[in-house]
Amino acid sequence: MSLSHLEDLARSERANRGKYAEGKVRESLKVLGLGHKDFDWERKHDARASRGRIPSQAGDFGYFMPRRHGLIEVKEVKHDFRLPKNNFDPEKWGRLTMREWAGGETLILVYHTTTKLWRAPSFAFFLMREKQPSWDLSEFPTFPKVSHILGPLLFPAA
């Protein structure tokens, strides 16, 4: 393989990082939207996919319900239980914090490609460990499907 081919592969991998997990979250939100007339959601524009033409957005998805709104940040990592800090853009981190201060919720969904399992660590977990180079998420339960997390988080009484 030539060097330019390897560079193209690396660029393609970076561009597609997280797309599988985001697609699964999108599917789950669509299903939830069909089952709840008082629930709406949106996909936030992707600054990376737009090659910088669109500024970084707070969260990958937004959701809206009576007396409740929030953001969903989706992460996809090649590790069984760790999330590297460099997977979080500092500007996005600040925006998520501002949304929390404004009364919104922040859901973090992490898909581990090595185990094909999902976790939902709390946003507060990251805020309390801001200085770490990576986060050990092993204390959070795993789920085989993102729908097993999203449904109960968004509709706990259902």
Q: Would you mind describing this structure in some detail?
A:
- The chain is of the alpha+beta class.
- The protein has one domain (3-154): Trna Endonuclease, Chain: A, domain 1, CATH 3.40.1350.
- The chain contains five helices and seven strands; from the N terminus they run ααββββαββαβα.
- It has helices at residues 3-16, 19-35, 90-101, 123-127, 147-154, and strands at 40-43, 61-65, 68-77, 82-84, 105-112, 117-119, 134-136.
- A five-stranded mixed β-sheet has the order 1-2-3-5-6. A two-stranded antiparallel ribbon has the order 4-7.
- The radius of gyration is 16 Å and the shape is globular.
- Mean pLDDT is 85; it is low at 8-12.
User: Mean pLDDT score, rounded?
Assistant: 85
Output the CATH topology.
Answer: Trna Endonuclease, Chain: A, domain 1
Strand-residue proportion = 15-25%
Number of helices: 5
Main sheet properties: 5 strands, mixed
Order of secondary-structure elements: HHEEEEHEEHEH
The separation of the N and C termini measures 53 Å
How many beta-strand elements?
Answer: 7
Shape: globular
Question: From the structure provided, what is the oligomeric state, counting identical versus distinct chains?
Answer: single chain
Give the C-level CATH assignment. Answer: Alpha Beta
Cα-atom Rg, whole angstroms? 16 Å
Low-confidence stretches: 8-12
Strand order of the largest sheet: 1-2-3-5-6
- Label the structural class: alpha+beta
Q: In the residues, how many domains can be counted?
A: 1
Architecture (CATH level 2) name: 3-Layer(aba) Sandwich
**Percentage of residues in helical conformation:** 25-40%
